[in-house]
Amino acid sequence: MELETLARLCQACIQQSPVIVLGSGASIPHGIRGMADLATWLRDAVTTDGDEERDAWLLVRTALAHGEHLEAALDSKQLPQSLVIKIVRATWDFIAQDDYALFKSAIRSETDFPLKSLFHGLFRSTNRSIHVVTTNYDRVAEYASDSGGYIHSTGFLPGYLRRADGAENLLFKQGNQPARTVSIWKVHGSLDWFIDPSGGVLSLPMTSELPEGLTPLIVTPGVSKYQRTHDEPFRSAIQGADRILQSASAFVCLGYGFRDSHIHPKLMNRCRVHDVPILVAAQTLTREAKDFLRNNAGRHYLALEHDVAGTKVFNRDHPDGVVVPGGSYWNLSELNKMVGF
User: Fold this and answer.
1) Regarding the domain delimited by 3-29+112-339, which CATH topology (the fold level of the hierarchy) does it fall under?
2) 136, 149, 283, 321: which is deepest, by most CB within 10 A?
3) Structure pTM?
4) 137 with 190: CB under 8 angstroms?
């Protein structure tokens, strides 16, 4: 495949005002460690009390030792609530370290956000709104939006002590025009979402340390994530993401592994049934991503991943992949340049 052909195929999808889907792979270039590192951290950081916690955690550790990824190791395990709380806290501690370092770097303008360039390119049209759906807890999308001069909304009112008020209820204006707004649907929660001792939900500016008396509102992989999604603010975030995904005219998936049951079925329905175009870019496409592309992505799919000779490209004409030499076009920075962003 020629580079010009690849650029044309990518542009055809991006010009459809796509919904952006972010997975953990989109944050790794910013120093946010991924699921493999988190698994190692949890294995060493979580301590158990009593036989019930010890036995349950031994099952998880054994699954990890046998090579299962974190989501699979935690899934279908009946973990006591006391252990779930410890996993949530350890997960928050781990990712918050990286996120706060990125925040300080962004303050000093030492970080380039390719996502900002993507937003900028998408806002060149008359479009005043971009939707991002993400399973990530980190705030890369928020920082990218802020650094581009755009308003971001995660479903909370503006301020320092932010209360939930669904993202679709918040309308921002600049002068007499709707403000260019990035709506970020965080279906698994966010590092700056908390629940207070009285059960109140709020979003706070955060540091690298957990505010005393508050519990992080993040949903870790495993059985507990299905229990928590019935509660706010997860329910509103998931319902909003569902509406956006079900009406999308195109998708751009960055670093997304197609392992989440909240997002994956919506992508499958929209692409397979309605033939909506989808562009998937990742350093390494997961087995689940390749299965989706082969069986459920419809006709208008395009996927990019790293190859030693350049970029391996998958589409309807090349279901087993073809190499475009010379560039890392799966990388968002290179992808932006290729499509003129």
Assistant:
1) Rossmann fold (3.40.50)
2) 136
3) 0.94
4) yes
